[in-house]
């Protein structure tokens, strides 16, 4: 079964598109408060055996929080797998009501600038550096300067990856596999959005590490927001909808790491129950009808408010 890792998208900045943030984080989302909560979450993850932590330059202060925690706990490079991503800049200025929270720019100047920022914080802890939300249309997979910089980073011992999003994830993944330039891919796959599955299976067969993000669909497959079919299965299993949703991902033979997007230790503990759920043909058959057309899924995601 796939390992469960921890993604920091929802804890490094005050606003994000996950449902239930008012309940989970409360009203005080000062830098100091979120730093303390991030450290508490990271302590809980380490104690529970989580060994993969994922961040990004656009996750507000996530890299900063992570770096401070690594130093304060005197964690040696190599004890944890630390991945991060470049391509988006956080521009929300720590405001809940910011008109724009992040801005995408996939060019070599952005790569050089953000890599320097990441290395200044994470140093030798950085295991994997990925393009954030690469697409065919962006041209980043054909950018010789970007690919050259990434190849140099790879030769220095840092693995190179990409993350994908949108209804054409499969095309981007297949292009990355064909290039041979990448060691890992991070993509959205969940009980609602399964379209990238065959391409991810091909990436895994080609030797790339496969990480799955947004396993609970930004909260739409968790708690009260989960569909009745999923809540019914969870009740029968004595688990929570989020754990069942993540178990369905972890059961895929081509998945190496399932990223939890938890923001509290309690939420993380709930997510980790996924490792105890034995996926079956019956569960697969009962939950397969939840799958949606990719265009519908991504349109619904785009409509989620920053909260």
Automatic annotation (TrEMBL):
Identify the taxonomic lineage of the organism of origin: Bacteria, Bacillati, Actinomycetota, Thermoleophilia, Solirubrobacterales
Highest taxon listed in the record's lineage: Bacteria
Domain NADP-dependent oxidoreductase, residue spans: 32-282
Tell me which InterPro entries the record gives.
AKR2_Oxidoreductase (IPR053135), NAD(P)_OxRdtase_dom_sf (IPR036812), NADP_OxRdtase_dom (IPR023210)
The protein depicted here goes by the name: Aldo/keto reductase
The record's listing under SUPFAM superfamilies reads: NAD(P)-linked oxidoreductase (SSF51430)
